[in-house]
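W.,

You were right to be curious about this one. When I first looked at the sequence I had no strong expectations either way, so I just let the prediction run and decided to look at it fresh. Below is the sequence, 181 residues in total, followed by the output.
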Amino acid sequence: MTDEKLTDLIRTDPETGMSLVIRRFSGLVFSIVSGIMADVSDSSEIEDCVTDVFLRFKASLDGFRPEASLKTYIGVIARNAALNCIRNKRTTVPLDEDFFVGAAVSPDVSDEIAEKETVRAVFDEIRKLGHPDSDIVFRKYYLGQSSKTVAASLGMTVSNVDVRSHRAILKLRDKLERKEL
């Protein structure tokens, strides 16, 4: 089933559609979340975060662009959810009012927009690298997985992953320089 048909199914029959999404992407989500949270969380916290990923996905479905990959979209949600879970576990220290003296009242919105556009352009170029290069780059540089982990999940040798990764990064750099990003 294509990503577009799957998202349409979620809109028309949420229970069946989400069941298919969970079946299709639970391994990916668990891999991302546990890879990020393994050192600082127990298994129940990881499972809670995985559940949260699918809830966030359903809530943000209107933000999904059909030309993007559903796998990448859910992967980004999983990464962000895992990082948020880790951040929420940290203890906070209250700051006194003197800390904020001279601090900027609001961030420069144009910088935020430019950064988001740059990130979107980079992801589009990564996606255009094609399989397995886009998967390798995404897993190694965005999810922080080791070459060994990437190789095992894609059924490749570690040296093949390293070579393809290097070549893909060179291609990506060339494309981004031509776009002046």
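Here's what jumped out at me. The chain has two domains: 1-92, 100-181. And, maybe more interesting for your project: Helices lie at 3-12, 14-37, 43-59, 70-89, 109-128, 133-142, 147-154, 158-178.

Coffee later to discuss?

I.
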